[in-house]
């Protein structure tokens, strides 16, 4: 199958990141072989950015897919693929960051990740081998986050060449400011929930001013997912504009997300999209 080159953004580390990536959350989680085969298909159709995390349990099958993609010649070298992974909340501690990244790299079978993110600005008690899962999070499992110490350890991961870029996820302006106050290396990316019904404009302006790329998860509003809503896929304005251009809402939504329209968009259409009001019901970012 002929694959299309996905547009890229240049991060503040000088690294190029494909703006569209394949999310690897799956619930229920299929067996590793099935996931590896799905990721190989994604390579085949042109995906070059994959988004995983310790908590998703998809690092191992993704690593196997990278190895297989190299074997099959879908990519010629490791640096043709961009791998993002994330530090889970029970490892958000100065002393646990480096060991957690080393574990991630072992699972991926790689020498470095392209981007390593603090998954949430939340710290959970570390109970040893098994990470506390999302549905086990309760106030008694939480402990205060040491942003300064955790970020220092993230910077060390970068200096050691184990993470080409470092960043955060689900951070609001206040917590980002706390990092920036003490950082030697500023975050390259803040990955947050971002879509036409949850545009996060203030956060977007703040990130732009500080050279941080704002990257969006659940661009379709996590349609049909447990934590999601139909605020994007069933939005009457998006439906009307998409249909008038013979596109579907998902195609149009992705064009908005990467600000690259493969069809004409009038100023009025752009304003109407900008004006889509917020009907959000999910977790949002933490301030
Ligand atoms: N950093 C974080 O804290 C965080 C949090 C959540 C997610 N993420 C990342 O973001 C990724 C994406 O999240 P998401 O899956 O919620 O994203 P999403 O793109 O908002 O939603 C995907 C949903 O949209 C449906 N869909 C996809 N293409 C469609 C189309 N063309 N027409 C109609 N429906 C369509 C899918 O349904 P079907 O399954 O039925 O196709 C799926 O349920 C995750 O895998 C993860 O990597 C990060």
Automatic annotation (TrEMBL):
InterPro entries: AKR, Aldo/ket_reductase_CS, NAD(P)_OxRdtase_dom_sf, NADP_OxRdtase_dom. Substrate binds at residue 119. PROSITE patterns: ALDOKETO_REDUCTASE_1, ALDOKETO_REDUCTASE_2. Residues 20-222 form the NADP-dependent oxidoreductase domain. It comes from the Eukaryota. The active site is at 56 (proton donor). Pfam families: Aldo_ket_red. GO terms for molecular function: oxidoreductase activity. Coiled coil: none annotated. The record marks 86 as: Lowers pKa of active site Tyr. PANTHER family: ALDO/KETO REDUCTASE. This is Putative methylecgonone reductase.
